[in-house]
Every structure is written in structure tokens, then in C-alpha cells.
Amino acid sequence: MAKKWNMVVDIARCDNCRNCFLATKDEHIGNEFPGYSAPQPESGHSWVDVKRHERGQWPVVAAHFMPVMCNHCDDAPCMKAASNGAIKKRADGIVIIDPKKSKGQKDIVDACPYGAIFWNEEEQVPQAWFFDAHLLDEGWKKTRIEQACPTDVFRSLKVEDAEMRRISEEEGLQTLKPELGLKPRVHYKNMHLITHCFVAGSVVEHVDGVEECAANAEVVLSRNGNEVARAKTDLFGDFRIDQLEKNSGPYQLAVSSESSGSAATAFDLGEDSLHLGTIALGEEA
Ligand code: SF4
Ligand code: SF4
């Protein structure tokens, strides 16, 4: 079976430095690659779009960043919308919008459900991130965005589809909009940072009449009487439990420590992550 390109994107490692976005600009603004792309215009295009997502509420708010680009779908609706064979799927999995054949075909932009195609008004062509195929064809082992990223968010893999399925299962990878069934070749790691909620809180105890942070207390989260997750508080008495389904409440939370007793509280989890405030050991909330 043929080996094909895939991109793994680890959301947990992205710190929004935007080097990937800039590397794509540097590669393509003013540069034409015949057979691959016309030059990218100086403004208005985000072939690699680093999207920001926030979870939580004061005092615990988490921001995560997700680079979004052409997914090189195996069942690509952009190809179906194109006439004249303007978009082709290569044997190595990469989708290329032909810069000559696609001239004037503005409708292609709306065919992509990921918003990954941009219209180049000057050149009158639709354009998207084409997996740096011009560089890979010259023998590069990595895409330019992968090379430019300082925190190793990207991992381009040329493997057989069966091997990619194995990697995906092993690492818990997910794709964007899987319900569309388009078989994207961009796979996200730690997607729960975007799709799921966390619950956090601070635990205190009273020592000789003084309120102290309760470090190393046991936190047990349950739903319908069944344990869902457990965690320990850190040095500051803080805890966070992640990967909870949105709108999955009600939950019960119990906290205990050998020296200061226990406390319990309950909450409903809706669309957003929650901070439960301060929980005092020895007092039932
Ligand atoms: S270069 Fe890497 S860390 Fe920086 S924004 Fe892009 S993916 Fe995120
Ligand atoms: S992500 Fe959009 S542009 Fe890329 S192959 Fe899929 S449908 Fe086409």
C-alpha cells in the first residue's frame, strides 16, 4: 500500500507564537511555484490560521491555540466543486489547487467546510496550504511550518493508511468535523483542550486558627454515585480535573485529607468549565 502524508497537530504544545503563519507568508508572498501555487497576496490570507480558544472563568482561565489549515481530505468537497480538473488529489494524499486551471473559479472557496480556502483577488485564484508539496518534492523531510515551530506542535508523517489509523488510535488523535466523513489528513492531539471542560477549585484547611492552603488533599469527582476522576491538590491547594463532557452534570465532588477532615460539594456542568471557589476542609459545603 502507498505511503501518504498526514499531519499531526498537538494543541497542548501550541503557544500562539505564530511562526507557522509567518513561515507560510515568507514562503509564498511574492513567490510563485508553477504547478503548485501563484504568489500569496500580502494581506487577507491565513493558510495556517492559529485559532484561539478560551475555557474557564476567573480566577482559572485557560487559553489554547489550534492551527487550522487545509486538511487534505480524501473525500474532498472542494474537488467536487471544481471544474476542469482544477483540484487534484495526489497519490501521496496531498490536495493541490492548480493555479492555472482554477483561475476564475471563486465558488471553490465556499465548498470547503473548514474555511481553509482563500480567494486571491489579484491572481483570480482560490488558494490553500498545500502541505509544502513543492518542498517535499525537492526532498524535504518536513514541511516548512513544522521546521518553523519552536515547540514541536507539528509532526508530518508519510505512512500507510493502516499505520496512520494505528497511530491515531494509540495517541487518541481526532479530526475536525468527523461527522462530515471527509477523511481529513490533519489529525489533532489533545483536542479535549478545545472540546471538553474542566472543573477547578482551591482547598483550604485551618491550622491553629490560621487558614492555610491544603496541599496533597484527595479530590474525588463522581456522577450518579460512580467515580469519574480523582486528583490531588498542589502546594497551593489548587486542583483541576479535565476532559469532562460539556453539559454532562450533575456531579458530586468530595475532598479529604488525613489531618483536616473532609468537605463535599455538588455542581452542574454546562457549556463552560467551572471554578468551584474555595472549599474548606472540615466544613460541608
Ligand atoms: S509555530 Fe508552533 S507554537 Fe507557534 S503558533 Fe504555530 S503551531 Fe503554535
Ligand atoms: S480542507 Fe477544504 S480545501 Fe482542503 S481538501 Fe478538504 S475541502 Fe478541500
Quick tags:
285 residues, 2 domains, Alpha-Beta Plaits, elongated, 15% helix, alpha+beta, binds iron/sulfur cluster, 4-stranded mixed beta sheet, Immunoglobulin-like
Describe what this molecule looks like in 3D.
This protein is α+β, with helices and mostly antiparallel strands. It has 2 domains: 190 residues, Alpha-Beta Plaits (2-Layer Sandwich), CATH 3.30.70.20; 85 residues, Immunoglobulins (Immunoglobulin-like, Sandwich), CATH 2.60.40.10. The strands form 6 sheets. Strands 10, 11, 14 and 17 form a 4-stranded mixed β-sheet that branches. A 4-stranded antiparallel β-sheet has the order 13-12-15-16, with no helix packed on it. The chain is elongated and about 75 Å long. The structure holds iron/sulfur cluster (SF4) (2 copies). The site of one iron/sulfur cluster has 14 residues, from helix 1 and strand 3.
**Overall pLDDT score:** 96
The proportion of residues forming helix, as a percent range, comes to: 10-25%
Number of DSSP strand runs:
17
Radius of gyration: 24 Å
The CATH class of the largest domain turns out to be Alpha Beta
What topology does this entry show?
Elements: E1 4-10, H1 19-28, E2 49-57, E3 60-68, H2 77-81, E4 87-89, E5 95-97, H3 108-111, E6 118-120, E7 125-127, H4 133-136, H5 144-148, E8 154-159, H6 161-171, E9 186-189, H7 192-195, E10 197-207, E11 210-213, E12 218-223, E13 226-232, E14 238-244, E15 251-257, E16 261-267, E17 274-280
Parallel strand pairs: 1-9, 10-17
Antiparallel strand pairs: 1-8, 2-3, 4-5, 6-7, 10-11, 10-14, 12-13, 12-15, 15-16
The structure holds iron/sulfur cluster (2 copies).
The site of one iron/sulfur cluster has 14 residues, from helix 2.
